[in-house]
Amino acid sequence: MAQLSVENVTLSFGGINALNGVDVVVEPGELVSIIGPNGAGKTSLLNCISGFYHPTHGRITFEGHDLTHASPHTITGYGVARAFQNIELFGGVSVLENLMLARHTYLKYSIGAASVFYGSARRVEVENRRVVEDVIDFMELEPYRKALVGNLPYGVRKRVEVARALSLEPKLLLLDEPMAGMTLEEKEDMVRFILDILAERGTTVILIEHDLGVVMDISDRVYVLDFGMVIATGKPEDVAENPAVIEAYVGGAG
Ligand SMILES: Nc1ncnc2c1ncn2[C@@H]1O[C@H](COP(=O)(O)OP(=O)(O)OP(=O)(O)O)[C@@H](O)[C@H]1O
């Protein structure tokens, strides 16, 4: 059974369909990329999967859970985490604190529990710290762990944003243009991290990325969106030769 299933999803804003009858299936452990010209609906699709938007029609399920009308908080609890295109970090606190805050915000833990069940809350806190330190190590962020995020270079902040999502220990990681605005060297590092996330953590990844060279290199399968519709899907080499895809990119000048 598919891990994630997007069935016939339409998302309308007024008279405009940002998504129109979209079907996407993702198997556990896959790297699936979503590509398409500007305004094709890629971010809208991630917004539907992560609960920021709710489809006008259709259904989304993840490991048997119905995500269609679920909140972002509930969906994170099911094991779906997202790294945002526009970085969603707190600039005034450290890398370590940002990751700890993500766990406190999204995973089940409360100050009330801390005062009533001190022992159990402390165990949760020790576990939170262990997971976060492991992610810092994995994303090679040790040199920055105490640095204020707002003072870090852009490329490092993008890496912290992925680390923030990973600190939620997702089964499915949604990456919205994690390499946008990066130098070539930073992009190569990010590609290596994504491949390690798949191989070493066994996390399924959905990637939105404009750099088609990267997409074709690392994806297991690709979905191509244009005007809110899936116009092609398959292995990277098949999609790259699809006339409709070439037309969408050439026609869209991009
Ligand atoms: N909140 C919203 N209100 C109205 N229209 C929206 C909203 N969000 C997205 N849209 C519209 O939906 C369409 C798809 O936008 P979306 O951002 O999903 O595309 P995209 O493929 O991610 O584009 P890009 O590559 O430029 O990020 C666009 O026409 C956009 O203007």
Description:
By secondary structure, the protein is of the alpha/beta class. Helix content is 42%, strand content 24%. The protein has two domains: 164 residues, P-loop containing nucleotide triphosphate hydrolases (Rossmann fold, 3-Layer(aba) Sandwich); 79 residues, no CATH class. The protein has a six-stranded mixed beta sheet with strand order 6-7-8-3-9-10, sandwiched between helices. Strands 2-1-4-5 form a four-stranded antiparallel beta sheet, with helices on one face. The longest helix has 21 residues. It is globular. It starts with a strand and ends with a helix. The model has no long low-confidence stretch (mean pLDDT 91). The site of adenosine-5'-triphosphate has 11 residues, from β2 and α1. It comes from Oceanithermus profundus (strain DSM 14977 / NBRC 100410 / VKM B-2274 / 506).
In short:
The chain has 254 residues and is of the alpha/beta class. The protein has ten helices and ten strands. The chain folds into two domains: 1-79 and 170-254, 3-Layer(aba) Sandwich (Rossmann fold); 91-169, no CATH class.
Q: Please report the first level of CATH classification, the CATH class of the largest domain.
A: Alpha Beta
> How many separate domains?
2
How many individual β-strands?
10
C-alpha termini separation: 35 Å
Major β-sheet annotation: 6 strands, mixed
Low-confidence parts: none
**Approximate helicity band:** 40-55%
Order of helices and strands: EEEHEEHEHHHHEHEHEEHH
* Unique ligands: adenosine-5'-triphosphate
CATH topology of the largest domain: Rossmann fold
What radius of gyration results from the CA coordinates? 19 Å
Spatial strand order of the main sheet = 6-7-8-3-9-10
